[in-house]
């Protein structure tokens, strides 16, 4: 009697890849009579159409684990099929299902619900077995609840246009571009869900990678790329590989003012790949007053600005494609810049201003319902002292928070304008 040896993830990936290629004629037959009309649109029109669909009231904010998230997943799958991407999930599918678990899904009423990543690929023309992953989360904040920053108790639809219909539309635009003009390496396009509930979809995807990690050149993430203001775009992760600064130096863009941030960690899906020691870049045009609020709507998107950002992303990917895996060295970034809240939920519940270079922790926005909000912390405040600890930067804050227990109470000193205010915070 013959014994079967368990398939390695590498073998499983090859089975998936070759099985998918075998069924390509079937996929293209499905495309007959379903020709894309996107080609007649300008880039701005293309992006507007997709963002307006994703961020419409009918989608009710695309909360992970809901029928509205499933509707959006099917929409993305249809676009992938339309463009001719290979389905990269199990059973010749674009949909990778996973279960929502943890405290945030529980508090949002979707614990144990099924959620969906949408995964497609454009095979490399020369090196199909090496990969570049482009990702964006398509889930939103639903009706707000715990993860809303709206004031008051009334729940409203959070259309989640910039966060992150913008990144999703950008992902679709890039998928279409590379389908028309493939890279030498295979490019995987991953629309993640569960990001708003704790990076659940991207962490599931990384934990179940079917290709060897050393065959992945890098991951490029798009999150909140729709509010370009004054041409300023932040690119996180620039110290996670030896090549990033060289590549960024080569790109000449009169339209963009690029801020390079070393951080590999953060509060978006690139963090899951960085944790797996895969080089990352994360594009982000900055937080704003509508972040995690019902006011984040499609009419406020800067579509021309998105075009400029996506052209920059495409150029980075095509330059990255010229490198061999052995030429790319993963590096731990010296600037972790994590979200200002621990994974167990203990923290002020604030979003730091990552562009701030002064003394203290400047608050970009405060999350409704968290300890900072209850203590009276406001957007723009600069935290300069917690308990007896002087807070010179985000590292001081995170170091202090590592010893805090639920229920602890501390004096909190913030600089608001030219005044120092003492508040009391209960974690």
Please give the structural blueprint.
Elements: H1 9-22, H2 24-31, H3 43-54, H4 67-83, E1 86-87, E2 95-99, H5 103-107, E3 114-122, E4 127-137, H6 161-180, E5 185-192, H7 200-207, E6 216-222, E7 232-236, H8 244-250, E8 257-261, H9 270-275, E9 280-284, H10 303-320, E10 340-341, E11 347-352, E12 361-366, H11 371-375, E13 382-386, E14 389-390, H12 394-401, E15 409-416, E16 419-426
Parallel strand pairs: 4-5, 4-6, 6-9, 7-8
Antiparallel strand pairs: 1-3, 2-3, 3-5, 7-9, 10-11, 11-12, 12-13, 13-14, 13-15, 15-16
Helix pairs in contact: 3-6, 3-10, 4-6, 6-10
Looking at the structure, the CATH topology of the largest domain is: Aminopeptidase
| Proportion of residues in β-strands | 15-25%
The CATH superfamily of the largest domain is Zn peptidases
> How many β-strands, per DSSP?
16
**pLDDT averaged residue by residue:** 87
Unreliable parts:
1-12, 22-36, 336-340
Question: From the 3D coordinates, which CATH architecture of the largest domain would you assign?
Answer: 3-Layer(aba) Sandwich
Write up this protein.
The protein has 12 helices and 16 strands. It has 427 residues and is of the alpha+beta class. Strands 1, 2, 3, 4, 5, 6, 7, 8 and 9 form a 9-stranded mixed β-sheet that branches. Strands 10, 11, 12, 13, 14, 15 and 16 form a 7-stranded antiparallel β-sheet that branches. The N and C termini lie far apart (62 Å). The relative contact order is 0.11. Residues 1-12, 22-36 and 336-340 have low confidence and may be disordered.
């Amino acid at each position: 009697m013959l014994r079967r040896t368990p398939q390695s993830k590498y073998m499983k990936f090859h089975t998936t890849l070759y099985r998918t290629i075998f069924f390509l004629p079937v996929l293209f037959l499905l495309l007959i009579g379903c020709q894309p009309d996107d080609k007649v649109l300008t880039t701005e029109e293309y992006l507007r159409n997709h963002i307006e669909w994703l961020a419409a009231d009918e989608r009710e904010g695309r909360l992970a684990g809901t029928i509205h998230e499933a509707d959006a997943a099917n929409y993305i799958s249809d676009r992938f099929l339309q463009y001719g991407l290979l389905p990269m999930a199990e059973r010749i599918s674009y949909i990778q299902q996973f279960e929502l678990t943890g405290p945030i899904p529980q508090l949002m009423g979707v614990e144990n619900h099924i959620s969906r990543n949408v995964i497609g690929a454009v095979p490399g023309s020369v090196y199909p077995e090496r990969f570049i992953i482009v990702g964006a989360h398509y889930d939103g904040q639903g009706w707000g609840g715990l993860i809303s920053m709206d004031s008051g108790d009334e729940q409203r639809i959070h259309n989640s246009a910039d966060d992150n219909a913008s990144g999703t539309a950008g992902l679709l635009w890039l998928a279409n571009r590379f389908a028309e003009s493939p890279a030498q390496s295979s490019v995987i396009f991953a629309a993640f869900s569960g990001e708003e509930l704790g990076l659940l979809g991207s962490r599931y995807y990384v934990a179940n990678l079917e290709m060897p990690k050393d065959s992945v050149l890098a991951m490029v993430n798009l999150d909140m790329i729709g509010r370009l203001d004054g041409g300023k775009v932040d690119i996180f992760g620039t110290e996670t590989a030896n090549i990033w600064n060289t590549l960024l130096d080569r790109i000449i863009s009169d339209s963009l003012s690029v801020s390079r941030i070393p951080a590999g960690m953060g509060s978006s899906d690139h963090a899951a790949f960085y944790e797996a020691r895969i080089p990352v870049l994360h594009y982000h045009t900055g937080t704003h007053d509508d972040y995690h609020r019902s006011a984040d709507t499609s009419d406020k998107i800067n579509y021309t600005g998105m075009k400029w950002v996506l052209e920059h992303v495409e150029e980075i990917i095509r330059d990255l494609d010229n490198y061999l895996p052995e030429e790319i060295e993963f590096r731990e970034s010296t600037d972790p810049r994590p979200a200002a809240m621990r994974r167990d939920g203990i923290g002020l519940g604030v979003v730091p201003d990552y562009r701030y270079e002064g003394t203290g922790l400047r608050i970009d926005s405060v999350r409704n319902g968290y300890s900072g909000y209850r203590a009276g912390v406001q957007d723009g405040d600069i935290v300069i002292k917690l308990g007896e600890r002087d807070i010179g930067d985000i590292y001081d804050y995170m170091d202090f928070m590592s010893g805090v227990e639920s229920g602890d109470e501390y004096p909190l000193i913030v600089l608001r304008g030219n005044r120092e205010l003492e508040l009391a915070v209960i974690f």
